[in-house]
Design brief:
two-stranded parallel ribbon; globular; about 20% strand; about 270 residues; TIM Barrel; 8 helices; eight-stranded parallel barrel; alpha/beta; about 40% helix
């Protein structure tokens, strides 16, 4: 228990240094924390400058974390009491990472349409049942330039997100990462086009997943317009292809820039301070 609290405190302290945005990925292991311990965590987050909590999902497959009176909903009520604005994640298909690679162009967009419908249903549940104050919604279906390399797919996605965002009552947030299939300039134009829908687009810097070489990642980051937020990955994944992911926490690569900033941690233990 103490180890888990230390991990979460470290994650929140890192995130609060990054333009006041805190990314939180709900996991069932967190259910063991008491209300007093959650209150301590959120107090620490706000004390260190955190103002907005981005929750990556509120339902993961069949798991809704106990629903309106479950541990996640109750912990988020405490977060708001401590002064954190809430950007709530919607529905996440547990098989998303596998399914997104399966369909062809038509099938992919049909799959996305289904998932957007599930996300909209979850948004209604959060509004009507959870009754949390919401500053924004987060769509937990990360984009990449591998599955959206085609201009036709990107345009179809734009159309779907335009219609989806119009049905929401608060700003929509969405994340993307680069796999090296689009050039930095084309990738930047794509994300800027999505941001023109009044979305907050977040780009993962790739320091944790290390899909691209450091100099290549930097080229992608340098091409981004200032409206695109940058998520600093404060972890690394020392695993071989085809093996289960295990993450090791590291210090995030923060630097001054014009972009909104946040930190994403995926930790097994808190690293030493540098």
């Amino acid at each position: 228990m103490r180890r888990l609290i230390a991990v979460l405190l470290f994650a929140l302290s890192l995130a609060a240094t990054a333009d006041e945005h805190l990314f939180y990925q709900p996991l069932e292991r967190d259910a063991q924390l008491s209300q007093a311990q959650w209150r301590t965590l959120w107090e620490a987050a706000t004390a260190q400058g955190g103002k907005t909590l981005i929750v990556q999902w509120s339902a993961y497959g069949a798991n809704d974390f106990g629903g309106a009176q479950g541990w996640l909903a109750n912990s988020l009520r405490l977060a708001h009491e401590q002064g954190l604005q809430l950007v709530l994640g919607l529905y996440r298909d547990a098989d998303y990472d596998q399914r997104i690679g399966e369909p062809d162009g038509v099938g992919l967009m049909a799959y996305w349409q289904t998932q957007l419908g599930n996300a909209l249903a979850q948004q209604r549940t959060l509004r009507h049942d959870w009754q949390l104050p919401v500053a924004g919604w987060y769509l937990p279906m990360t984009l990449d330039d591998l599955h959206f390399h085609s201009a036709d797919r990107r345009q179809a996605l734009y159309t779907q997100l335009q219609a989806f965002s119009r049905r929401l009552d608060a700003p929509l947030h969405i994340s993307a990462f680069s796999a090296g299939r689009l050039s930095p300039a084309v990738n930047a134009r794509w994300l800027e086009q999505l941001a023109s829908l009044q979305l907050q687009v977040w780009w993962h810097d790739g320091h944790g997943t290390r899909r691209l070489a450091p100099l290549v990642r930097q080229r992608y980051a340098d091409a981004l317009p200032c409206s695109i937020g940058i998520v600093n990955e404060a972890f690394r994944q020392p695993h071989a292809a085809g093996q289960p992911v295990r993450a090791v926490a590291v210090q995030p690569k923060l630097r001054s820039a014009c972009h909104p900033r946040a930190v994403l941690t995926d930790q097994v233990k808190p690293p030493k301070r540098l």
